[in-house]
Design goal:
This protein is mainly α and 232 residues long. The protein is 79% helix and 3% strand. One of its GO terms (molecular function) is melatonin receptor activity.
Length: 232
C-alpha cells in the first residue's frame, strides 16, 4: 500500500513533466536524477513503515486472519497515516493528471499553440494506462482509508458500529488491487500482450513436449519384452 501509493505518485509526476514540459524533460529526468527519484520513493516507504513498529499498530486481526494495521490503537496516528499515506499522494496525482488531461483536451480541440511540442499517440496510450492504474488504486483503497478516518474520529463509539463484513470486504478489496495491475497492462499495453502471448505459448509448448515424451516412453515400455519372456 505505502510503496504502491508513492510509486504511483512518482509516476504521475514523471508523466506530467514528460507531457506538459517535454522540452526540459530530459534535463529534469537525467539518469542521475531518475536514480535519485527511485531512491527517494524507497526512502519515503521505509520512513513511513518505521513508525508502525514504534506505535504498535501492527497486530493480529482475527477478522482477516492476518497481522495488519489496527486503526483503533491511536487515533492521531491513524489520521496521520490516512492523510500522508493516501490523501496527500492522491491529491498530488490528481493535480498531475488534471494538467495532462487539460493538455489532451487542448490537442483534441486544436487550441494548443503550435510553438509547443505535440502529444504523441504512444505517449497518450501510456498516460491512459497509468491513469487507469491510479483510478483503480484509488477506488480499491478509498473504502479502507475512510473507515480508518471514521474509527479514528471516535474509536470507542465508531469501531463497534462498523459492520465486520464491510471492514473485511474493504480490506480484501484493497489488497486485490495488486492483482489488477497485470490485467490492466495486458489489456491496454501491446508490449505486455505480446509477452503474455509468448509466455502462454511457451507453457503450452512445454506441456505438449512433456506429454509427448511421457507417451513415447510409455509406448517403449509396453513394446519392450519382459526379460523372463526373452530368456525363454
Amino acid at each position: 500500500d505505502i510503496g504502491s501509493v508513492f510509486n504511483i505518485m512518482g509516476i504521475a509526476i514523471n508523466r506530467s513533466c514528460y507531457i506538459c514540459h517535454s522540452l526540459i524533460y530530459n534535463r529534469l529526468y537525467s539518469s542521475k536524477n531518475s536514480l535519485c527519484c527511485v531512491f527517494l520513493i524507497w526512502m519515503l516507504t521505509l520512513v513511513a513503515i518505521v513508525p508502525h513498529l514504534c506505535v504498535g499498530t501492527l497486530q493480529y486481526d482475527p477478522r482477516v486472519y492476518s497481522c495488519t494495521f489496527t486503526q483503533s490503537v491511536s487515533s492521531a496516528y491513524t489520521i496521520a497515516v490516512v492523510v500522508f499515506h493516501f490523501i496527500v499522494p492522491m491529491l498530488v496525482v490528481i493535480f498531475c493528471y488534471l494538467r495532462i488531461w487539460a493538455l489532451v483536451l487542448q490537442v483534441i480541440w486544436r487550441v494548443k499553440p503550435d510553438n509547443k511540442p505535440k502529444l504523441k499517440p504512444q505517449d497518450f496510450k501510456n498516460f491512459v494506462t497509468m491513469f487507469v492504474v491510479f483510478v483503480l488504486f484509488a477506488i480499491c483503497w478509498a473504502p479502507l482509508n475512510f473507515i480508518g478516518l471514521l474509527v479514528a474520529s471516535n474509536p470507542v463509539a465508531m469501531a463497534p458500529r462498523i459492520p465486520e463484513w464491510l471492514f473485511v470486504a474493504s480490506y480484501y478489496m484493497a489488497y486485490f488491487n495488486s492483482c489488477l495491475n497485470a490485467i490492466i497492462y495486458g489489456l491496454l499495453n501491446q508490449n505486455f500482450r505480446q509477452e503474455y502471448r509468448k509466455i502462454i505459448v511457451s507453457l503450452c509448448t512445454t506441456k505438449m513436449f512433456f506429454a509427448d515424451s511421457s507417451n513415447h516412453v510409455a509406448d517403449r515400455i509396453k513394446r519392450k519384452p519382459s526379460p523372463l519372456i526373452a530368456n525363454r
